[in-house]
Amino acid sequence: MHVIEFVRNVRLWFAPQQIRQEGGTPDYRFSLANERTFLAWLRTALALIGGGFAVDQFLPDLRWGWRVGLALALLAAGVLCSLRAVNHWVRCERAMRRGEDLPVSRFPAVLSLVVAVVAVAMVVVVLVGWEG
Amino acid sequence: MSGGTVAEPVRDPGLQPERTRLAWRRTTLSGAAAAVLGMKTALHGGVSVAGTVACALCFALWLAFLLLAHRRIRALASTAEPAALTPRHATATALLTVALAVCAAALVF
């Protein structure tokens, strides 16, 4: 379900005129607020990517598997976060044009859990894995 | 909505365009931090051809991001009620972020 919806939205990413045909233009302030939310998610994604680099660079004593695993987990989270950012922005923009309720999302909860798990893993790895 | 004359455009009391402009600046800054970390990783442990290429790629991605941000900031400043961000512009910025992550994954391995 979600995947089909996502693929349908991907076409909208590249087709501005398709969005513009639907409904009415919302107040420009709402669009700008949506844009800032999108940028905030993009910053979150960039922070996750930076975290991936940092794990690789600043934990050199870790075993290779743990280091690369943690770094790749953070990088993958960054990729997901930025793709989700565009998708959510498109969905919000469309909902505003149609006058519908804004879409709800489980993504913030999922991302928080992933970040929490990665943080716990890093604590464990740093405490246990130094001599690795 | 009767304001917006040519001489003195009505200023949004919520300063929405300014806040959006600063959001673009912050995001560019975050991108710079991530790109610098990437360049540090690329040049870690001596200069090699692959490392230099990866470093240049990180820098180029950040430059492209800066260009997109600059264009959007110019568009925001040009009118009192700026048009919404286009999906293509948003997708391009997100894809640049993804490209940086892919570059990072290649470097980490």
From TrEMBL, chain B:
Q: Does the keyword Membrane apply?
A: yes
Classification via InterPro entries: DUF202 (IPR003807)
Q: Name all DUF202 domain ranges.
A: 12-76
Q: Name one GO cellular component term.
A: endomembrane system
Question: Is ATP-binding one of the keywords UniProt gives this record?
Answer: no
Alphabetic keyword roster? Membrane, Transmembrane, Transmembrane helix
Q: Kindly provide the name given to this protein in its UniProt entry.
A: DUF202 domain-containing protein
The uppermost taxa in this organism's lineage are: Bacteria, Bacillati, Actinomycetota, Actinomycetes, Kitasatosporales
